[in-house]
Design goal:
alpha+beta; 45% helix; 10 helices
């Protein structure tokens, strides 16, 4: 299986200049490839394969000598991205979506990563450096070792001006035998980030809400600057740094809490929530985006494999309305925070009642029975 490792890069000014130039040349190849595929279909009703675009690339190198300053496989990977973008577009069309999203051209500064798919790169852990062909050696913070065989390297520029390198490594994980026998159901919410079936709660950190005033302040300053001026570029970078800070806090929180769960529980059940549909509620959309339920489920699932745990997703229908003791439907509004069953007299926290129902459904799932 593949595992990704991300490290912070610290390029010099000379490296930054070369990287930005490389990114812009890749952007132009991306746009040219996209135009080639689009025009071929519009005028000749003919699809252009990846092999054919690679042949065109050799001609472009003759016409534009500056492309020789970019490693050949990096340019080929750019065309692979265009090919994958069209395949994803056609899949969305087949599914019948109203907004399939035709692949778009990349404007200046909007192409922010390059990939070395096979060779042309190396990692020097001892000296805390990476080597990228046509770019050179760049200092990196290698804070943890890589397990397995490195397959690809990707250099990325964040919107806040930070640089990162990611390695995809192929390895055979050592599946641990989980020492715990506990199981849990987790009800994800907004009042509390999560409520476990035993009544424990994980508080909602509300990272975006806490930074909202600071973000509004820097956005107001940005809006006052004229477009295209250096002052506006500086203000835009400040806004991006605030967003980056919020995202990093959220990511750190998610990874810490998901690690606690997989180390403690052998079976973890979540609701299979349709988060995009839930965000259509204009009153709750900002809070739902801030809480990042999908990221939590994904991070827990990723960690569960090696930890010897199992994550199952269950149907969320009536998990909040069903009484966990007598299985009778007890209707509630969102404002009703306590479950009071008129049939069996059970009174408990609404979210804990839902978490117990989720745990029961998780134990009944085919994946849980197979273990």
């Amino acid at each position: 299986m593949l595992k990704a490792y991300q490290y912070r890069l610290y390029p010099t000014k000379a490296h930054t200049t070369v990287l930005n130039r490389t990114f812009d040349l890749c952007r132009k190849v991306y746009n040219n490839t996209l135009a080639l595929k689009r025009d071929s279909w519009d005028y000749d009703v003919k699809s252009v394969s990846l092999f054919e675009t690679n042949k065109e690339l050799t001609i472009w190198k003759q016409d534009y000598p500056e492309l020789s300053s970019v490693y050949s496989q990096v340019l080929q990977n750019v065309q692979v991205r265009v090919d994958l973008a069209f395949k994803a577009f056609f899949q969305r069309v087949k599914k019948g979506g109203d907004k399939a999203g035709y692949p778009r051209f990349k404007s200046f500064g909007r192409y922010d990563s390059i990939t070395y798919p096979q060779m042309g790169f190396s990692l020097d852990v001892q000296n805390q450096m990476i080597f990228a062909s046509k770019i050179g050696k760049i200092r990196a913070l290698i804070h943890r070792p890589i397990e397995g065989t490195i397959k690809t390297m990707t250099i990325r520029r964040s919107c806040a001006g930070k640089w990162y390198v990611s390695f995809a490594a192929e390895y055979e994980p050592e599946i641990k035998v989980h020492s715990g026998e506990e199981v849990t159901g987790i009800d994800l919410g907004l009042t509390s980030f999560a409520t476990l079936s035993n009544g424990e709660k994980i508080e909602n950190p509300r990272f975006f809400r806490r930074e909202e005033q600071a973000l509004a302040k820097v956005q107001r300053r940005l809006s006052k600057e004229e477009k295209g001026t250096p002052e506006r570029a500086k203000r835009r970078l400040i806004v991006a740094k605030v967003h980056d800070r919020i995202a990093n806090k959220r990511k750190n929180f998610i990874h810490q809490e998901s690690r606690k769960l997989v180390d403690r529980y052998k079976l973890i059940a979540f609701e299979d929530l349709k988060i995009k549909n839930m965000q259509q509620n204009s009153h709750l959309s900002k809070s739902i985006a801030d809480v990042s339920w999908g990221m939590m489920v994904q991070a827990t699932t990723n960690k569960a494999g090696e930890a010897g745990s199992l994550v199952v997703l269950v149907d969320p229908k009536n998990t909040s309305q069903l009484c966990s003791r007598c299985n009778q439907i007890v209707r509630k509004e969102l404002s009703d925070r306590v479950h009071c069953c008129p049939f069996c007299g059970l009174t408990m926290d609404r979210d804990q009642n839902a978490a117990i129902n989720i745990m029961r459904l998780g134990l009944q799932s085919p994946a849980a029975k197979a273990t």
